[in-house]
Structure formats: C-alpha cells, structure tokens
From TrEMBL:
Keywords: NADP, Oxidoreductase. The lineage of its organism: Bacteria, Pseudomonadati, Pseudomonadota, Betaproteobacteria, Burkholderiales. This is NAD(P)H quinone oxidoreductase, PIG3 family protein. GO terms for molecular function: NADPH binding; oxidoreductase activity, acting on NAD(P)H. The keyword NADP applies. SUPFAM superfamilies: GroES-like, NAD(P)-binding Rossmann-fold domains. It comes from Burkholderia gladioli (Pseudomonas marginata). Pfam families: ADH_N (PF08240), ADH_zinc_N (PF00107).
Length: 339
C-alpha cells in the first residue's frame, strides 16, 4: 500500500510517499480502506520529533481516517456498539497510522459516517470531535450552573479545527460561546459558526471583552490551546468556580499563577491528551458523540468546516499550511489517482 512516512525529523519535506505492507488488524480491530484522512497539529509535532507515538501504535502519522471496513473480526467478545460490519463506511479515531491507504482501528473507535456526509467530510471529524467532547464536556464539565442557568465557554484559537468544532457543538447545545482568533476575517468566521462574540487577540484584550459580555462575572469554562503566559490572564477571565482546560502548549509549557486566587475563587486548571488514552475511554466518548452530536451533524446544525482538500501526495504542503496558521477549520488529504 501507499503511505506517507516521516523519513527523518524536520521540516514538512521529510514527509515522503512510500510503499508499506498492509497492516493486519488485531483482535477487536478492523481494517479500513482509507478514502481520506485529516491533518492535525500532533502530526506536525510528531514530524518534528516532539511527540512520539504511544507504545504499540504505528510509526506513521495520522489520527483520523474515513473509508470502508474491509477486514477484521466481528462476533462474540468483540465490542461493536454501533453494529458495524464489512462494507460499512466509517470514520475512525486512531493512535497513529492514518497517513496510509489502509489503516487499522479498534472497532469501538469507529463511528458510521453521518448521513449526508462524504468520506472526505467525515475524515475531518474524529480527532477534533473526540477532543472537544472529552475536554469541554467530560473534563471541563460544561453544563448548567448552580442556579440552573446554561454555562458559558471561551474557545481560544476559535478558527482552528478544534475551535470551529467546539464553537458549533456548544452553540448547538444552547451555551453562550465566545472565541479568540488572530484576524478580523477569522473572527467573523467564528461568529458565523455560533460564537456570540469573537475577539481579535492582536488588538483586543480577551479578559476585558469577556468580562464586559458577562457583567464582569467571567466565563465558566475556557478551552485553551496556548498556555504559557495566557494562563494567569485566563484565570482572571474565569467566573468563580470556573475551569481552565489546557489541551496544547503552543505558547509554552510553563506558567506562573497565584494559588491563592485558585483557592479563593475555587478555580480548576486541568488538561489532557487524547492519543494515549485506553480504548475503553475512547469508546465511551464515541458512544456519547453518536448519541448527542451525530444527530446534530445529520440535521445540518453542526457541520464539518474544511479549509481545503488536497491529494495525499501533497502532505508536505498540508503541513506547511497548518504551520502557517492561515487556515480556518480542517485540512484533509484524500487518496486517488494523483497520489
């Protein structure tokens, strides 16, 4: 099969199209003939040598695919929560190996392609939707406040793949959502997706804006991909009892905060990575997505936001585009004659 390999750590041009043996699914896994796969920031970190695959995962990058189930075991003792079988179109969350014509995935991490979506569109879903649900709603606990009111969410990096997903899901479920982005154009894109107000962090202070929009109360949950010096400012933007959920460290891995403020205002700083979590955890998130979010996608309330679709042979260009941060939403690669 064709695959995109990291031949050495470095710039995007270390990604090369190679021939690899087709992987064999283990018990509980299926073999997927990949039609398309999504590009995610962890792929870039892996290419640079800063994010190794977890033990047992493929050395190939790629955390999400969509395609057709063409192999695997089905039957007694194999978790198959959605009743999938050979020939079904699925999108799947992987620990690695997505940059290939064939990939294996735990059956419990495969979801049926939502009705009305193409495989290219479905390839943009798993990594961001699993990440958003597990962090905003599971870990961050976005829900109703003590008085029964809907809580509020601030999404840092609202125009990213994670950002556009978080905005749409939270808005569709009735929450007030605010976002930050680096250009006025990206801010308008965030607002078109459901953000009540998008803040251009280059010329506005997100703390001041959020406070003004919430009667000086602050927001209940912040989804943060920046960290670093943003953290103490984010604590100031939280309401009492608020939760800061850190999922990336684009601004640095260290921050200086006041523990007194955290104690006094009952604040929580938490975070997580999805890739190394066990299948059982990811299966639980998959079930929650299928029940709550898949109907929103099929109704058109939540939709894939894809910046561009490129042939798989242009993986290096896709990585360069992601690193430029000039995109809004997801970058997807597809297999075809041009690959």
């Amino acid at each position: 099969m064709k695959a995109i390999e990291i031949t050495e750590f470095g710039a995007p041009d270390v990604l090369k199209l190679v021939e690899r043996p087709r992987p064999d699914p283990k018990r509980g896994e299926v073999l997927i003939k990949v039609a398309a796969f999504g590009i995610n920031r962890p792929d870039v970190f892996q290419r640079k040598g800063a994010y190794a695959p977890p033990a047992g995962a493929s050395d190939l990058p790629g955390l999400e695919v969509a395609g057709e189930i063409v192999g695997g075991e089905f039957g007694d003792g194999v978790a198959n929560p959605f009743g999938l079988t050979l020939g079904d179109r699925v999108c799947a969350l992987l620990a690695g190996g997505g940059y290939a014509e064939y990939a294996t995935a735990p059956l419990a991490q495969c979801l049926p392609v939502p009705a009305g979506l193409s495989e290219v569109e479905a390839a943009s879903l798993p990594e961001t939707f699993f990440t958003v649900w597990s962090n905003v709603f599971d870990r961050g606990g976005l829900g109703r406040g003590e008085g029964g009111e809907q809580e509020t969410l601030l999404v840092q990096g609202g125009s990213s793949g994670i950002g556009v997903t978080a905005i749409q899901i939270a808005h569709a479920l009735g929450f007030r959502v605010f976002a930050t982005a680096g250009t006025d154009e990206k801010c308008r894109a965030c607002e078109a997706l459901g953000a009540e107000r998008a803040i251009n962090y280059r010329n506005e202070d997100f703390v001041d804006v959020v406070k003004s929009l919430t009667n000086d109360r602050g927001v209940d949950v912040i989804l943060d991909m920046v960290a670093g010096t943003y953290v103490p400012r984010e604590l100031s933007a939280l309401a009492d009892g608020g939760r800061l959920v850190v999922i990336a460290l684009l601004g640095g891995a260290k921050a200086e905060v006041s523990l007194g403020e955290i104690l006094r205002r009952r604040l929580t700083i938490t975070g997580s990575t999805l890739r190394p979590r066990p299948v059982e955890f990811k299966a639980r998130i998959a079930a929650q997505l299928k029940e709550t979010v898949w109907p929103l996608i099929e109704a058109g309330t939540v939709r894939p936001v894809i910046h561009c679709v490129l042939p798989a042979s242009e993986a290096a260009q896709a990585h360069a585009l992601m690193e430029s941060s000039e995109h809004v939403g997801k970058i997807v690669l597809e297999w075809g004659a041009s690959a």
